[in-house]
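Help wanted!
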Amino acid sequence: MRRCPARASAASNTSTPLLPLPAACTTLADTAMPNMLEVEKVDQHFRCGFLMRRTQVLHAVELRVPAKSIFGFLGPNGAGKTTLITLIAGLRKPSSGVIKVGGHDATGTAARMKTGYLPERPYFHDHLTGEGLLKYVGTLSGMSRPKILARIPKVLSLVGLTEARRVELRKYSKGMLQRIGIAQAILHDPEFLVLDEPMSGLDPLGRKEMRELIVGLAAGGRTIFFSSHIITDVEAICDNVAVINKGRMIGCGPIGEFLSKGPVKTEIAFAGVDAAAARGIDGLEQVREMPDGIRALVPGQEAVGRALTQLLDLKARILWVNPVRPSLEEIFEQPAGGRRAP
Amino acid sequence: MKQSVRESAIRTFEIVRAVGRVTFLEIIRDKVLYNIAVISFLLLGAGILASRLAILKQDRVILDFGLTALTLSCMLVAVLCGAGMLGREFDRRTVYVALSRPVSRLQFVAGKFAGLAAVVALNWLLLAAAYIALLALAAHGGFGQLAGGTFFCALFLVLAQALMAGALAVFFSSFTTTSLAVVFTAGVWIIGSNVSQLRWLAVKTGGGLGGALDVLALMIPNFEYSNLGLKVTYGVPVTWLYMTASLAYAVFVVLLAVLLAGMLARGKEG
Ligand SMILES: Nc1ncnc2c1ncn2[C@@H]1O[C@H](COP(=O)(O)OP(=O)(O)OP(=O)(O)O)[C@@H](O)[C@H]1O
Ligand SMILES: [Mg+2]
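Answered by r_m:
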């Protein structure tokens, strides 16, 4: 059901160009689905500094998120992700433009009832226990007390914090805080989850658990919108992505298309050949010696076969061959093809 | 129509209670509170000492000293804890958890104030009990003779005064920094406790400046209404009308300050 376009189309080079912006950023897939989130021509200004100078942080941002999908929102630091997310969560009104959640204005009560929000680097009243926080948040969401009490154990076991429910939040680790953050966001069973960097500060295992948690929540029919600046977090679980840089949407669509746009490289690890000989091989770049052998990068997919044949001719022992995902920076750096430079 | 008004009233009550509870627990854990409590008990103790040194009217000295200590303590709690509350919520971004729910800023600020009010009231209750116990033990002329109706009225008015100051601190902190909010509230309290002097000054100066002082005297929250001053020392009776009026005035100031704070807190996170 939930397919993973990342794997499917990343390898193939049949890339349709990224949707050029500022055209409306509708995702190609699931056009039949109604949109859970609609962001139209949103600008955001801030006044800051002593002189209250106006700086524009978001420039005519357009975005549509189909219902029941996982949507990744990528951008480097300072791109304006958090700014847009606070607008989506209804914490403030945009300077101009419209944001609708499930057809309702994002700052209204109806939209807030539908939305669960995990702030960036969540920090909660640390004198509360995990359970205490959930009770507090449940009341604020307008849930009745019996409903809150019935829901808390479910949510806690979902995020794996049942044991820690009576522990004060000040004693929680970063990963636990992130998870109680998810728990408070889903307590009132919202259809739409907005998560601001849910994986930041987590170790690889924590990231994996968070990804599984997100996929699990989506399987229950929720729409999930989350931000990140790390492609690997997004590629494994998202249906669609949008990329923002310097406050402008620079692309939007199924994730595979993004990855295929980036410089595709392959890492080969091998042993049994000395470094000098390896450097002589045509197509191998950045040859590095490691205790267990040699690593080298091969640019482009055609070169992989050639390099491997030459290595095998030299009687090299191949340890592994691994595709290297382009990082966000590399996607930004490549010359604009089919899209305007920001 | 009536139904929905009722429902939203209940909902507001629930929110205020939930936010108030969390705020109460938060302040209770704060070190500031305990420092103030220690100072207040020291002041009460100093009252006994001072009364021993006084030659005449020893009981009156304890009475005055105690009331001053109680006022100061409640004021400190209200202002120091109240001024930091909103800023801390915004700085630590704990406020987003509340405001991303169907909760208005006004409801939130009202909840914060309710928590503060509970702490102030608790502090007041404990100190007042200690104070009364002290009077009962230390008064030579008997407690009943010393502390009549006026005394108890004064106790209640101290609470009213502290709640007014707390609401003002919350109001100022909705648009300035914590330290400025403390300074502003202290300023308003000092001027507001001397409104009659201000009026007198206005008459003396006259002209444009006098007019300005008159307007200030009219606008500034008047803390004199809740300060019985020498009436307590000499046990001059106060009327029910006076009590009702000054309590109503305090409620009015509190409501207005919280309302304005709820409106101004909007701009806080830019
Ligand atoms: N309240 C504010 N007042 C003034 N400027 C702000 C405010 N909030 C954000 N900005 C500015 O907006 C820009 C985007 O910030 P934002 O936090 O949205 O970035 P981000 O994409 O979330 O970055 P990160 O990955 O580091 O979290 C920054 O340059 C920041 O300085
Ligand atoms: Mg951010």
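OP: Thanks! One thing I noticed: Chain A is about 35% helix and 30% strand.
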